[in-house]
Design goal:
By secondary structure, this protein is α/β, with parallel strands linked by helices. It folds into 2 domains: about 140 residues, Enolase-like, domain 1 (2-Layer Sandwich); about 250 residues, TIM Barrel. It is built from 15 helices and 15 strands. Strand 9, helix 10 and strand 10 form a beta-alpha-beta unit.
């Protein structure tokens, strides 16, 4: 079997808002086709126009080869060797950042393709399942533009998550910092009151996480702001500091009691080694696409397990990434949860409509996937519609 073609679909949701702190409004979906008619599907959480350029750009020398060129004609079942080929061949342009994120979409598609070719779900080919089901947590971010409306909505969404069977949820509390959602403005004290409201509504036994999306400029500022948050029994605080402030992360891990989670933006196991060993985070969050695909995500999981750290994969895209994270979690003992975005608690039409069939939560758990590959089917009508929107924006931008 040989790879014969790679399709890159740049997708955009109509009415996208550049003021939103949400990458669910766009997507890069790749399809890897073979001469035997088997196709693999993948995506990554990165600007889709940049990712497409990374994949389609021709190479001009041995240190900067094109990703597509390196894959065409290759055996798609040799996934680990292909990952190394892509990483080494693109090293001058890549090694980290967008090129690795693009490799992640391709690697995800190769795992899907291999599973389909061999008639097995991806988790069987990643080492085998070590649990009977996967536990999701609801990721909650109301699309509102005023802090009072947000404060009401986040409690309503949390209660809705509990009512439909979730036993855990993460609230996005981002009304300050460089990525304040939709222009929301609030003080650190008001952030505390939001968490207090949600904890009171959910009760003491519900697992609660908080994502502040890089809100604090320093460890000192963060520790002052979260000093009282210990009363809320949080499973973790996610990304309180800039990604490169490893010394700050180490201080948070050592000088206060709430577990710290980070890693959503990182690419390759090498960045995660720094985060774990220098940043000393207690919860490691590889995004399957961004880190470099299932191949590299599994390596990160193994490194975390060696350090007795928890893995909770980040994802903020469609059912494609949900499936990839579920297969990863199925093979990872130290992974208590995956992020999950149910239609009932999601306002992104792209996220809700792109996948025709995907994984579902039943009684608070996601059963082990049994379909070959990722077990996901695209909604072709939705794919075409979101693709047209992206083309219209491109035409307007470059006019």
């Amino acid at each position: 079997m040989k790879i014969v073609r790679i399709d890159c679909h740049v997708l955009l949701e109509p009415g996208y808002d550049v003021g939103a702190t949400s990458s669910s409004q766009d997507d890069i979906v790749v399809e890897i086709h073979t001469d035997e008619g088997i196709t693999g599907l993948g995506e990554s959480d990165v600007n889709p126009w940049i990712a497409r350029a990374c994949i389609q750009a021709p190479g001009t020398h041995t240190m900067g080869l094109g990703l597509s060129e390196m894959l065409i004609g290759q055996d798609p079942l040799e996934i680990e060797a292909l990952w190394q080929k892509l990483y080494v061949g693109s090293a001058m342009n890549g090694r980290r950042g967008a090129v690795i994120h693009a490799i992640g979409a391709l690697d995800m598609a190769l795992h899907d393709l291999r599973g389909k070719a061999l008639g097995k779900p991806c988790h069987e080919l990643l080492g085998g399942a070590v649990k009977k089901s996967i536990t999701p947590y609801a990721s909650l971010q109301p699309e509102v533009s005023s802090f009072p409306a947000y404060r009401r909505s986040i409690v309503e969404w949390a209660l809705r998550a509990k009512s439909i069977g979730f036993r855990a949820a993460k609230i996005e509390v981002t009304p300050c910092g460089p990525y304040a959602h939709k222009g929301l403005v609030a003080t650190h004290a008001e952030m505390t009151e939001v968490i207090r409201d949600v904890r009171a509504a959910l009760g003491p036994d519900f697992t609660l996480m908080v994502d502040v999306q890089y809100a604090f400029p320093s460890a000192e500022t963060c520790m002052r702001a979260i000093e009282s948050w210990t009363e809320f029994n949080l499973f973790f605080i996610e990304t309180p500091l800039p990604s490169d402030d490893l010394a700050g992360y180490a201080r948070l891990a050592e000088e206060q009691a709430i577990p710290i989670a980070a890693g959503e933006w990182l690419a390759t196991r090498y960045e995660f080694l720094d985060l774990m060993d220098r940043g000393k985070v207690q919860v490691v969050q590889p995004d399957v696409g961004r880190v470099g695909g299932l191949t590299e995500a599994k390596r990160v999981c193994n490194l975390a397990e060696q350090r007795k750290l928890r893995i909770v994969p980040h994802l903020w895209k469609s059912g494609i990434s949900i499936a990839a994270a579920a297969h990863l979690a199925a093979t990872t003992r130290n992974c208590p949860f995956i992020e999950f975005l149910p239609d009932e608690l999601c306002e992104s039409s792209l996220r809700k409509e792109l996948v025709e069939s995907g994984l579902q939560m039943i009684d608070g758990e996601i059963p082990l996937p049994t379909e070959p590959g990722l077990g996901v089917t695209l909604n072709r009508e939705a794919l075409a519609r979101f693709k047209r929107e992206a083309e219209n924006v491109s035409a307007s931008f470059f006019a």
